[in-house]
């Protein structure tokens, strides 16, 4: 009964996300056509790199998609739920691009930093992407809580983390310094909202649909081949 109810809630949430996402996709298409897209200088790109983030895909992929995201950002959740599977299957798994997640917790989201800490602590056990999915798919639950730590422990247990190590990591907040570096690097590149995407030297704000990301990847691959 509990599992059936959880699935029902998930599908209801998905329908709501899809409905709200229509406007976001329309805005993203305008961005990809020039309204909001900016070119990042080679000097700016060279000035960052201390924070590696978390990567899916081959190092030999000709193009990298960098997603700047906040785990409490609703548009980021829409991208993770509605679009990321296409990006992984049609671009990453085919070796056309790799996807790098770059933490960018926003100061106006009170539970964002704890969520990013939870993902980073899961990353210490090579389970960042599993926690990434837990946080985005359950965003509607933990994002409104005053003390979301118990939710994060539930997700950590669900993905099979060693709980002693996870708890110690969360208590010490040893990943916070890395996250602050991530925020500073993103700001230096011109990132001001989430999600934003850097493909080649083009930075675009908004939850881009798959087709727009594919166009950016193709352009970046063509530029790299010249």
Summarize the structure in words.
This protein is α+β, with helices and mostly antiparallel strands and 226 residues long. Helix content is 58%, strand content 11%. Strands 1-6-5-3-4-2 form a six-stranded mixed β-sheet, with helices on both faces. The longest helix is centred in the first third of the chain and has 31 residues, at 2-32. The chain is globular and about 50 Å long.
Shape: globular
Q: What distance separates the N and C termini?
A: 58 Å
Taken in chain order, the helices and strands follow as: HEHEEHEHHHHHHEEH
Strands side by side in the biggest sheet = 1-6-5-3-4-2
- Work out the helix count: 10
Overall SS class: alpha+beta
Mean pLDDT: 85
User: Quaternary status of these chains?
Assistant: single chain
Low-confidence stretches at least 5 residues in length (pLDDT < 50)? 1-35
Largest sheet: 6 strands, mixed
Strand composition percent: 5-15%
Query: Total strand count, please?
Result: 6
User: Which range best describes the helical content: under 10%, 10-25%, 25-40%, 40-55%, 55-70% or over 70%?
Assistant: 55-70%
Using only C-alpha atoms, the radius of gyration works out to 17 Å
Which descriptors apply to this entry?
10 helices; single chain; globular; 226 residues; alpha+beta
Please give a quick description of this structure.
The chain is of the alpha+beta class. It has helices at residues 2-32, 42-46, 74-92, 112-123, 128-137, 139-142, 149-158, 163-172, 176-189, 210-225; strands at residues 38-39, 54-56, 64-69, 98-103, 196-199, 202-205. The protein is 58% helix and 11% strand.
